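At this stage, I needed to go through a protein sequence along with its fold in C-alpha cell form, as given directly below:
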Amino acid sequence: FVQSNGAEMDYDIGGFYKDKVVFLTGATGFMGKVMIEKLLRSTDVKRIYAMVRSKRGHNLQERLQLWQKEEVFKVLLSSKPEALQRVQFIAGDCCEPDLGIREEDRRLLCAEVHIVIHGAATVRFDEALHKALAINTRATRLMLQLAKEMKHLESYLHISTAFSNCVISDIEEKFYPEHLPCSADKVLALSEMVNSKVLDNMSAGLMGSFPNTYIFTKALAEDIVLKESGSLPVSICRPNIVMPADKEPIVGWIDNMYGPIAFAYGAARGVLRVICVNIDVHCNFVPVDYASNLAIAIIWETSRKKSQCQQPAIYAIGNASNPITNGAFQNTMLNCRTKFPLTSMLWYPYVLNVTSVWTYYFLAFFLHTLPGYALDLVLRVVGRKPQFGKIYKKINDSMKLLQHFFHNTFRFDMKNTYRLRELMSPEDRITYNFDINSLDWDKYMHKSVRGLRIYVAKEVDTPESIAKGKKLMLRLVLLCVVYNYLIELLATPVD
C-alpha cells in the first residue's frame, strides 16, 4: 500500500488528511456523525463515502440533505456552508452477506479510498446472537476483505469497545484470544450451518462468561482483525462508554439514549426511582469528542508506521487515571436537577440506590410497577395508549443486563494512547484533544445534563423554560414526600 502522491507524509494530522478519500461505516451513529463533522471542519479531506442502509421510499441524496438541518453540523456549516457536499452516501447493510454494496460502488471504493473507518455495530446488549454476529463479527471480516482490494489504502481503523474483554478486570492494549470460548472462525462457521433460532438458543453455551451478545460479538470481531488483517495497515480503537460532547461540535450534544444517559433521563423525568448499583465502583466514560479525536489521530499514526506493524496496534481510552465512581456520577446528576429541571417531569427526581438485586425488585414493585399501572390506567381512561408498563419492564431488563458493569471496576491500560499523544505536535494536541486526565468531571456532568435537557428531552434552553421546570418541581416535592411516607408505613413490620 502506497501513498497516492508518493511523497513523504506530512507530520501534522491535518496535512495527512489533505485530499484523502475516507470510507466510513456507522456514519449515522453518534460517534460516526461527530467524526464526519470533525474531519470536514478540521481537515481538507477530499471526500467521505458513508455507508448507510437503504430505506424504502427514502432517496439517499434526500437523506443526506436532511443533515443540513441537524444540530451536530451547525457549527461546521456556519464556517463551511458547502462542507457536506464532500460527503456521499453509499447504500450498504452489515446484515447482508456481501455488505449490500452494489458492484459499481465496490469498484469506486477500491479505486479511490485511502482510509477505512469501520464503526458500524449493533450496541444492544440483548440483541439476538444471530443478528449481533452478522453485524458485529461477520461484517468485520467482509470489511477487511474489501479493504484488501483497495489500491490506495493507507490506514484502516476498527472501532471496538473497551469492554470487549470484560471477562477480566485489568485489560491491556492487546488481543485476548485465550478468553474466547471458541474462535470467531468456528462461531461464524456454525452460524452458516444452523438457522437463526437454533443459533440463538445456543447463546449461553457459546458465550461462556461473556455477559451479553454485544460484548461477545465485539470480542469475536477483534479475533477476526487479529487473524485476518494480514499485511493491511490496521489499528483498533477501544473507547469506553461514549457520552455527550465536552466541547465539540456543540457542548453537551447527544442524539441517543443508551446506557447512563437513558438512566439519567429516566431519573430527570421522575420515571426512574430505584437502581441497583455499587456506588464505589468506577464508571467508565469518555466524551464523544475525545473518542472521535483519538480515532482520527490513530488513523494518522497507523499510516505513519504501517511498514513497521507486526500486529494491529490497539488504543484504549477511558478514565482509569482520572476516575469517577458510580456514586459521584449519581450525586452530580441529581445535584443538577434544580439547575436544569425538565418541564415534562412526572415525579420529583430522586433515586434510591441498593446493592442487592432482590431489594431492587422489591422496591421497584412499589416505586416503578404500581405507579406505572396507575399511570397506564389514567391513560386508558383518557383514551390514550398505555406505555408505562412497557417502560418499566425495559428498565428492569436493562438493570439486569448492566449488573456486570454496575458491580465491577475495570482498569484499562492506555500506554499506546499516551504514547500517541506524545507523538503529536502541540497544535494537534489542542485540535485533536483526547487528554481525559485533564477532564473536570463535575463541570463535564453539568454540561451533559444541560445537553440531555436540550437534545434528548427537546426542551428549549431559555430562562423561562428553566423557571417553569422549577415551579413544577416544587409541586412534585410535596406529592413525593406524602407517597414515600405511605410506602415506609407499608414496609414497616407490625410488632
About this structure: Residues 239 and 317 are 5 Å apart (CA to CA). The chain has a mean pLDDT of 90. The radius of gyration is 24 Å.
